[in-house]
């Protein structure tokens, strides 16, 4: 496959995706491609169905209709663990870490799980050395080397989000889904996390839900707008900024200005 063809390959494809809870239809026939290597933002007003859509992609929810494909393979109906092993990792709006364990211990557990290693008396020393090396590398990647021995629960909020991103990376994913990674942060904290996301998603595919339009327009290559469970527009940040339908449905004067 040529480099150009590889770059245009859809890693995630949503085909007529639907999700209903009883009589209430939340996701209404979504069609969406996320290309290999791109940073793709999903935006929309509260209640649009963004988190539901990410739950469908990551296996936390089962669709009522349609398909989810990862690298051409149908994954709707698979467990989150199985989807993760196929190369897709996600974070959540609410940070999910082990607060009483150190930062290093959090990361080490994730790396050990990927290698299929459990604590035991009869493990080869090389196995532990490889895990220790990868843990040190991950600490440096997420810029928490100086906090390796700190309990995760004592980290600042932005540091906890960085640790959660590190935990997602321990599975060596091809695709990363992030659900509002800068929510509740100051501008300086958000800038730090955006720079980190840009670094760690290099050569990976990113799908991000984010309300901060400054973050979206600085970080992402493409943007899709979800309103009432349907994609109303997809395009470059500049095209979305200028789209009259988007301005009317969601972004309004903030973007027009």
Automatic annotation (TrEMBL):
Residues 12-253 form the ABC transporter domain. One of its GO terms (molecular function) is ATP binding. It holds the Pfam family ABC_tran. This is ABC transporter ATP-binding protein. Keywords: ATP-binding, Nucleotide-binding, Transport.
């Amino acid at each position: 496959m040529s480099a150009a063809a590889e770059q245009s390959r859809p890693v995630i494809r949503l085909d007529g995706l639907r999700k209903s809870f009883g009589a209430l239809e939340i996701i209404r026939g979504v069609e969406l491609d996320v290309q290999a290597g791109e940073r793709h933002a999903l935006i929309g007003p509260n209640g649009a169905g963004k988190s539901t859509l990410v739950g469908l992609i990551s296996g936390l929810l089962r669709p009522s209709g349609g398909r989810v494909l990862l690298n051409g393979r149908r994954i709707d109906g698979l467990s989150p663990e199985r989807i993760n092993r196929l190369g897709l990792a996600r974070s959540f709006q609410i940070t999910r870490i082990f607060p009483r364990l150190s930062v290093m211990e959090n990361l080490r557990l994730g790396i050990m799980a990927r290698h299929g290693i459990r604590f035991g008396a009869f493990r080869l020393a090389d196995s532990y050395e490889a895990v220790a090396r990868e843990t040190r590398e991950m600490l440096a990647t997420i810029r928490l080397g100086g906090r390796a021995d700190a309990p995760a629960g004592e980290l600042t909020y932005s540091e906890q989000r960085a640790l959660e991103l590190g935990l997602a990376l321990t599975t060596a994913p091809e695709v990363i889904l992030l659900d509002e990674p800068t929510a509740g942060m100051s501008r300086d904290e958000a800038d730090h996390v955006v720079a980190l996301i840009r670094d760690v998603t290099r050569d990976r595919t990113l799908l991000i839900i984010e309300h901060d339009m400054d973050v979206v327009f600085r970080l992402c290559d493409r943007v899709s707008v979800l309103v009432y469970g349907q994609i109303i527009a997809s395009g470059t940040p500049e095209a979305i900024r200028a789209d009259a339908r988007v301005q009317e449905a969601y972004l309004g004067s903030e973007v027009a200005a």
